[in-house]
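Backbone-to-sequence.
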């Protein structure tokens, strides 16, 4: 029987109960985690995350586990739905906390550059030194600033001198002027470009229009549990983003030495990733686009003898290629489109 790790203390009680129930089912079945992965189609790494409370299993994985263990899927999916709501509430609380932190950082930034926003620091009366260090929006720290130069004595005139400008106002005026200037230059450049593209009726002056790329679906168009699509998925974990499981298939497979290398493709997310199994610790696997789109993504095998790469946005499964480099020096790749 597997020796389970303690579940995270901050785990929601509903999610904790669900993870415990999944562990009981696996124990009762007598299957190892590797066997559960083979029979359900979800990786061993993913099942370790599900069973240790680090990630909520997708509904497809739960249905597959129920089938493998001979459990009534209706009861198990009912527990999953309750856990999914609890997990979403926890994520919402986390997002609200991060939003509050970003708002605080934005206020500090406005105070620093504007001089009169919340959190702004001003020299104290009767001192020649600026304020002490304070956090910037990026999380770093700035040293004390030099104090503003004192106003010059007013010239002899019957008209009283104008009050000194508020701190930071000059900088804001400069920023507004620069922004307006850049905007005007962009408008002019756009007008010139459009004029050149229009030509004078000569067919040789016309520029062939390339077909527009298929737009990525919006969040409301994605299936439940899927959190990204297209370029937004590049570099992300396919299991964490919900692109694996029922939304993925093996497009290409090859043998490199004793290891099995696959191109996994999700049409729903518009991405591919590479997976390597039956490998040795230290072996690496890489996914790349044959059309040169995006940087290749790499994964390294650990003690589990398998690994997968982050996702890479590709126009189709045929445009993805997976390559493996073994510690023995053997290298090999799948055949793109084959």
């Amino acid at each position: 029987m597997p020796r389970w790790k303690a579940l995270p203390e901050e785990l929601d009680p509903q999610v904790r109960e669900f993870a415990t129930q999944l562990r009981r089912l696996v124990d009762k079945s007598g299957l190892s985690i590797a066997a559960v992965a083979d029979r359900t189609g979800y990786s061993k790494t993913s099942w370790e995350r599900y069973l240790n409370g680090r990630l909520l299993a997708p509904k497809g994985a739960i249905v597959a586990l129920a089938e493998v263990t001979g459990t009534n899927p209706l009861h198990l999916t009912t527990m999953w739905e309750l856990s999914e709501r609890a997990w979403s509430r926890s994520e919402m609380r986390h997002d609200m906390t991060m939003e509050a932190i970003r708002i605080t950082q934005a206020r500090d930034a406005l105070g620093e550059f504007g001089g009169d926003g919340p959190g702004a620091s001003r020299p104290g009366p009767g001192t020649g030194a600026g304020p002490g260090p304070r956090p910037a929006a990026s999380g770093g720290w700035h040293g004390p600033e030099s104090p503003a130069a004192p106003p010059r004595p007013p010239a002899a005139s019957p008209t009283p001198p104008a009050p000194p400008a508020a701190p930071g106002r000059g900088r804001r005026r400069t920023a507004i002027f620069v922004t307006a200037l850049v905007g005007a230059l962009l408008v002019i450049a756009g007008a010139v470009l459009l004029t050149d593209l229009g030509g004078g009726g000569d067919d040789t002056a016309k520029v062939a229009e390339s077909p527009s790329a298929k737009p990525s679906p919006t969040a409301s168009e994605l299936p439940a549990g899927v959190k990204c699509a297209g370029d937004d998925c590049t570099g992300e974990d396919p299991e964490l983003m919900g692109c694996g499981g029922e939304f993925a298939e093996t497009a290409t497979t090859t043998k490199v030495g004793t290891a099995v290398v696959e191109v996994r493709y999700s049409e729903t997310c518009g991405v591919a990733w590479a997976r390597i199994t039956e490998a040795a610790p230290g072996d690496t696997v890489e996914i790349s686009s044959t059309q040169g789109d995006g940087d290749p993504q790499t994964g390294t095998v650990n003690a589990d003898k398998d690994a997968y790469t982050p996702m890479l946005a590709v126009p189709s499964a045929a445009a993805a290629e997976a390559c493996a480099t073994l510690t023995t020096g053997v290298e090999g790749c799948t055949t793109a489109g084959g």
